[in-house]
């Protein structure tokens, strides 16, 4: 195990006053926490209760406006029962409290592994580490991956399988609505993804003695299509709006939805994949669980033909999702969006 970079959960000792030097950001690249605004309802909260009823057109309009103006929105009445959400958060916490020897059975710094525990973002290439441990899982098709998931805690596979299956239903509902909001056929985005892919990250952010010097994750856009974020009640997510970082504090029984790079491409730049980041705090651990819904590696992604004309030329080239993800991973989390490499 000596080749393994030590996980944060095993590195941080209670009462520590300083973080290791490899977590300290350069002065010009620190969170500047005193300059962060608190979201006062500026991130749209959309009620999905009417999405399959007579108010569908209104809900679709709200989703379209949020995708175009914000790139982020929150949803309530999303169809996931509270017990499934609670069990998911509980299971995540239990996993990171397992003994080190048990957790490390899942460790790998190879990004091609479909189930892996790791730390930071890309330990092979980055110069400054991020204050995060994570368990990454592929979730769809479920039967292809569930047997390689951790078997400890004993309830892990059942609880996570129920959660990610229910989240997929929510994602497919949102994809139909987003397709319609763009004026496309309801199944357009669904068909553009080839066989579909669904991944999940269970992020663990331990308390940090010097949160002003580091990040849980620095500013980045998501390389996938759409992300559904479940978080506990500890704040940490911040979104860039009008050049200012805005803290999006958790609201019980809601999910945060954000548009990923592939959606920006399909919409020909109409919908925005927005920079966001995770900060840490000195008092509490934080759990966040993003579900990343994405095209299959072989899917050919490009602007929808219906959204390209003489007044709206194609902003992006066509590419496979595998090409895109490889560049994203090798570049790491940088403020320059990977999308810029694929512009026409």
Automatic annotation (TrEMBL):
Q: Does the keyword Oxidoreductase apply?
A: yes
Q: Which cofactor does it need?
A: L-ascorbate
Domain of life, per the record?
Answer: Eukaryota
* GO annotation terms (biological process): defense response to oomycetes
Matching entries from SUPFAM superfamilies are given as: Clavaminate synthase-like (SSF51197)
Is Mitochondrion included in the keywords of this UniProt record? no
Domain Fe2OG dioxygenase: from-to ranges: 195-295
Query: Which keywords appear in this protein's UniProt record, sorted alphabetically?
Result: Dioxygenase, Iron, Metal-binding, Oxidoreductase, Vitamin C
Catalysed reaction(s) here are:
salicylate + NADH + O2 + H(+) = 2,3-dihydroxybenzoate + NAD(+) + H2O
Recorded GO molecular functions are:
dioxygenase activity; L-ascorbic acid binding; metal ion binding
In terms of InterPro entries, this protein maps to: DIOX_N, IPNS-like_FE2OG_OXY, IPNS-like_sf, Oxoglu/Fe-dep_dioxygenase_dom, Plant_2OG-oxidoreductases
Q: Please state which protein family the record places this protein in.
A: Belongs to the iron/ascorbate-dependent oxidoreductase family.
Q: What PANTHER family does its record include?
A: OXOGLUTARATE/IRON-DEPENDENT DIOXYGENASE (PTHR47991)
Q: Provide the protein name.
A: Fe2OG dioxygenase domain-containing protein
Q: Which organism is it from?
A: Jatropha curcas (Barbados nut)
Q: What is the lineage of its organism?
A: Eukaryota, Viridiplantae, Streptophyta, Embryophyta, Tracheophyta
